[in-house]
Every structure is written in C-alpha cells, then in structure tokens.
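Hey L., structure's done. Input below.
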Amino acid sequence: MASAFPKVEYEQRLTRLRRQMNDKGLSLLVVVNPANLNYLSGYDAWSYQNTQALLVPSSELEPVWIGRSLDVAAAHDTSWLSADNIVGYAESYADNSPNHAMEAVADEINRRGWNTGRIGYEGDTFFFSLRGFFTLQKGVPEADLVDVGVLINWLRTIKTPSEIEFMRRAGKIVDKVMGVAVDSLRPGIRENDYAARIVQAQIEGDADFGASYPCMIPFIQTGTHAGISHAPWTTDVIPDGSITVLELSGCYLRYNATLARTISLGKPSDRLVRLANTVQEGHAAAMAAMKPGVTCHDVWAAWQAVLSPSGFKKHSRIGYTLGLNYTPTWREYTASLEPGKEDELREGMCFHLLCGMWTGDGTNKGDPNYGLSETVLVTKNGCETVTNFERKLFAKH
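Output:
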C-alpha cells in the first residue's frame, strides 16, 4: 500500500497550509484530526481511538507523525514521510491513566526545538480531549498555544482534480448502494436485515475499484421513528403502507459521497406526492443557484423561494460541504447552506445538498416524510452532480 496521491500533491497542500500559518504567525501546528493527518501526509489507519498527531513546522521541514508504536508500520505503509519523521510512543501511554500520550507529543516538540513561539492546535475536533490539551500546554510551557479551529478543513473544501475523481468514484458506489436499497425494500423485512443488505453493498462497492468502509451507518428512517432523522435502525418489521427515507453513502479511499431518496410501500398519499413535488422543485432551484461567487445564503434562498408558497416548512439547513473523512462523519464542518451564511461557493467545493422534511409517523396517514439529496460539485460556471440516481419519489406496490 502507498499514499493515495503522488507526493507532490501533499507538498502543494502543505504549501497552502504554511501560507495560512505564516499569516497567523504560527511556528508549528499540531494536527490531530485524522482526516487532516490523511490530507497532509497520506496516513490512513483506524488508529484515532488513540492519541496521534502530525507536527507541521512553518518552515520547509518535513512534518513529523507521532502515534502509538503499534501503528508505526501503518505510517510507513501509507504515508510519504521519511523514517526519521515517523515516531512511535511507548505502550505505557495506551489506556494507562494517569499517563497521557500527549506527553509524548510534547516531548517530541521539545526534542526538535519547536517548543517556543506560537503553536497552533485544532481545538474544534472530536479527537482532541480537554485533558490532552492541558497535557500539551504543560509539556510546552514556553509556547503560546493558539486555537486554529477548522483551518485545515477549509483548505480541504477545494478539491483538486485528483480528489474530484475520488469523489466521482464514491458517487458511483453510492448510486449502486441506493439501487440495492430500493430493490431490496419490501414489507415484512426487519430493519436490521434491510440494513445488512445495504452495508454489504457499501463494502462491495464498484466491480472495478471496490470501496472503503463508510463513515456513518445507513440512515433508514421508517416505521414509527420515521420522523427522527438520525435514528439508528431497529429490529422492527417494516410495515406495508409505510414511508422510508434513506440517507446512504459511498466511500472511496476515505472520500465520501452521499445520497437520499424516499420510498413509499403502497400508493403514496396526495399530501406525500405534493410534498415530493415541492421538494424536488426546490432542490432543483437550489442546485441551479450554485456557482462560484454566490453565497451559502443565496442557495438557501433559492430553495426557500419554492418552499414558502407551498405551506411546508423546513427549519434546518439544506446542505454542507463534505469529502475526505473518517467515522463518525462525512462532513467537513465548513460552509453550510443556511440563512445568513455569507461564505462564498468556490470552484472545486463539494456539497451534500439535502432537502426535505421529517415530521411524520412513517405512514401515509399522518404528516409525510420526504428526503432528497445529491452530492454536488461546484464547477467553473455552475455545478454538476457527483451522484446520478433517478430523482423521484419511489412507490413499490
């Protein structure tokens, strides 16, 4: 195994990052988000349940990976880093309180003489605990620690041609997965059995290039919990006459594409049909508005212009950027399609454009549920979909 991209692409990413670091007066950046480690070094392993970091100096020196000794082999295998810049810490730091592996990170910073000046850290990520921060702070007392938030995530929003190809492959995977999901749904099947068939398709991927493990579970919103957008599947039997909203993903070398569709088991109610038509029209309007230079608010407003006259209401946003990531999310936590957001769309951004409402009880008798989404790439003059699955309300009789 080797890095997913040529070394020169990682070097270009580092150059863009270092411009940002120098603008902020940072001498060093401690990267802990596994997606950002991958983005800069190519490192890819399910090791982020343990403390790990990539030390990126503002100078042209090569970054340094630090992780559990057990994972050093993965760093050699998947990253472009030289052997001298792959550092494993002792097993005594693994699940062995009061020891904390951020002590080893601080020790390496001190050993290399990078322990002064302004050191940035990723303060808004799942993978950096409060205790980890205090341990780092104690270990480099001469440094001024600066929270850079999601700085690298913003760099990741602009995809290179190579990354766009990976997104297209992820789109092909999820198109196949959704086809399996639509074909497999029938009344009387248990939700967990249905989920198992979907997960199998996610892992199988494409016949030519396979797939990677997905970042999140398949969201199967059906039955009595159909209005709960992020509920896990259950062992309940899916009844006839029910509405099922699916939000599924495909993953290729950690790049994720997502897709939502809605299936009615039995003839859909008039209200569901009207909701579906409204959502489809609003989704098309939002997509037509997407091009470089428009704001996230502008895209949301195009959707809202269709939704408001219909009488239906949606209180949540209609999309966000996505791409390279690890469990538990495919989101980048940057641009968000919602009112008041003035971040501009740029060529190379990928969005999960997700429209619809989840308010009902999973039957055609009450308020309906309907979800529709595409993974959308912003192009030079507009946008195009990375996913290409039939865009309609599916009805199975």
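The mean pLDDT is 95. The first strand starts at residue 28 and ends at 31.

-- N.
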